[in-house]
Amino acid sequence: MSDESTIHNVDPLEVQVFQLVTELLLDPEGGDAVRKMHWLAEVVEKAEAAFRQAQQPAAIRRDGHLIGHLFRILDEFEDFYTLLERKLQGASAERVRNERVNAAVCRLLLATAPVKTRFIVRLMYEEDVLDRVCRWAEGENTSTTTPPASLQLQCYAAGLLSVGLRDRSIADNVVNHETLPVNLLRRARYYAMALENERNQAVEYMHTIQKAALANSKHKKSTAIAAATKKRRLSMEKYPPQVHQDVDMEAQDISERLVHSLPSPAPDNATEHDTSHEEPQKQLLLLDLLYTLECLGLMGEYLELLAPAIKEDILGTIITFLHSHHPTLWSATLKLTSHFLAHKKFAFLFLENGGLQLVLGKKTQEEIAQLHRSMSMVLHGFASSTVVMESIFSRENDRHSLLRMALALLGSPHDKARQNAVVFFGLVLPFRAALEFFEQNEGVYVLLNLIRAGNQPKNAIQRQLAHDACLCLRQYVRVHFGMFVYALQRKITSSSRLPKLSQRKPVDIDDKSHEQQLALFEKHGKGLKDTKWVMELGRLRAVLVLLEVLDVFCKHSARDLEQETTSYRLWLVERAQFSLQSLRLITLVYPQIALEVCTTTLTNSQRNGLSILLECAMSSHFRDGDIVRDSMYVFGNCVLPITMELSKKMKDDTTLKQNLRSILKLARDKSAIKVCLSLLRYKRSLQHADSIRFLAARALLGLSRDRHIAQILEQMQV
Questions:
Q1: What is 296-358 written as a DSSP string?
Q2: Are residues 334 and 248 part of one domain?
Q3: Which regions are flagged for Basic and acidic residues bias (predicted)?
């Protein structure tokens, strides 16, 4: 009975895939092999498309879905992938008039890419295979009539190459290819010219932007530059316009319009598409365009590609595609743009020609929801350059729109989009305008929720999101600390020598500047007067969230981590380190919060904050030096506040004294003296040994204020 129910539950497509693979392996060189490979690829592509459409963005596992069953069937045939690999080798691939077979092999491999990326990359590590795929992807001259089989091979080889380019070593080789990168740039520009409506809109848009820049120029020099810029035309304008069609081009699908605009292919004797399972020409043209943009994007960050890209008018190509209404083309164009934004020259050209306004405007909320990941990549690209962000923040409308978009992406259902948005805010929070916007729109609350949710990540993307959220919170605290120290510095020195912080200039929070700020504060600081941001962190239970991160670190460190991957171990220690650094600054500038840090009890482990800090101080993690040092900084601030030593007012603060007595009593109960004494002999990390021993001695000095601990130390003759 169970066997019958199992048979009835099998999807017909699974049976079909099983039969196709069996027949293909029995007769791999037969006349029907090409049709079967296309048929098999078509089935897998449709199942993958259905999976992506039906599932939530966070769901990435295919087990239990039809596509997962199909891939499992393919894996059960040991010779299947060996057959595809053999067909890419020279003996088979270099046969005369073998384009249709090679195209079918590339398409079938490309269909398996969602789960076989490493296999495809390994194939391309072979130099002759990579050269062959590059030659196929380069194709013939796109301005001439291309036979269907050649177009198929060019399209699927470009898709296969886009998978291989995700590997850095392959990208290093391909970007230095003699002709391929330039030919891909020209192909993208050629497709942009084929879209006549978008091309004309792009030309008009760029001229409008340039005229506006000319009208706003106030100096003769800038007027001359703008006038010269006005004369600049898109390089695509020198080509004659395509013949207008009778139908309304705006209403047509973009792939249909590519077919109308490009030369018709040479006649081919292949069977009809519905029986051969080969994709029609209009779909091939669109796929070829998308794969071309993806290949260029994956090489876009290389400096070697910048000069030829500008020469081939990559900016005009991007502006043209941004005038389309095709969501897939828009997404591919945004990803391409995000990679080229790594170059400041391109970023400024993009801004000068109104690219940012195109990205942020003219889209409905429904359209933006489909573009979360690619939009977030563009934001990340802009934020990677401080100079570019200064230029954007000088324009109030652009600044507000950009920040509003980034805030919306923080709530995206796509983990990758949220991660890019978190990284964006981590990079722009040093700007006062971004900091104020972030606080006014409850950005800190969202950030703390992301950190808390990341304590139990389900996959690598969620793990990276939790890591970046901890880093962003540390940046947030550092920015406030940097602003406070800058104000302190202006009081100490002449105010005229240090100008006020500008909304458009970032606060320096790099490691070197931060160490200098700490040294200045420890010498002259007297605690915060304006405690608004610290009180807000307290209201949002930030201390509890940070202690939970440390508790996760302690639990996992107690296990044998040798079996875990290096990336996982680094994730544990870096999140803990960011949390400790945040706690250090909070307890340094606002000693009143120390009691909350020490006494907060976690629901899961039923341990208080002081116990967690002391366990971190005794860490035996492979990067324990950083953790031990930072935990001792926090513990030292709790038992011996620096600001209390510097401020007479704080010395007379009854509440602070009472809090300190409670902390010292708790420290005595938790054997803090034992931890500090053991750290006086710390030698594991040579880099941090001296500072850890100093911090242990400083903590003992603070503990000695408790008369019971003082008696113990006196008897031990420490």
A1: HHHTTT-HHHHHHHHHTTHHHHHHHHTT---HHHHHHHHHHHHHHTTSHHHHHHHHHTTHHHH
A2: yes
A3: 270-279
Q: In the numeric block, which tokens belong to residue 338?
A: 């995000």
Q: Looking up tokens 């899961």, which residue turns up?
A: 604
**CB atoms inside a 10 Å sphere around CB 530:** 11
User: Position 152: which residue type?
Assistant: Q
Q: What is the pLDDT of residues 477-517, one digit of tens each?
A: 999 999 999 888 888 877 667 777 777 889 999 999 999 99
Residues 439-470: pLDDT tens digits? 999 999 999 999 999 998 888 899 999 999 99
Output the pLDDT for position 504.
81
Is residue 267 predicted with pLDDT exceeding 90?
A: no
Does 469 map to a domain? no
What confidence category does residue 146 fall into, taking pLDDT thresholds of 50, 70 and 90? low
Q: Are residues 87 and 203 in the same domain?
A: no
Comparing 559 with 656, the larger pLDDT belongs to 656
Question: 168 and 228 share a domain?
Answer: no
Question: Do 81 and 210 belong to one domain?
Answer: no
Q: Which residues contact 696 (CB under 8 A, 6 or more apart)?
A: 632, 676, 677, 679, 680, 682
Residue 718 is predicted with a pLDDT of 61
Cα–Cα dist 72/112, whole Å: 11
Domain tally, the chain: 3
* Residue 456: closest CA among 465, 447, 445, 443: 465
Range of the domain at 685: 526-716
Establish if 532 belongs to a structural domain.
yes
Domain match, 145 and 232 both: no
**Is 212 found in the same domain as 144?**
no
Whether residue 673 sits in one domain with residue 608 = yes
User: Do 169 and 225 reside in the same domain of the chain?
Assistant: no
Question: Could you tell me which residue, 414 or 305, shows the higher pLDDT?
Answer: 305
Whole-angstrom distance, CA of residue 486 vs CA of residue 373: 37
Q: Evaluate whether 312 touches 185 at the Cβ level (below 8 Å).
A: yes
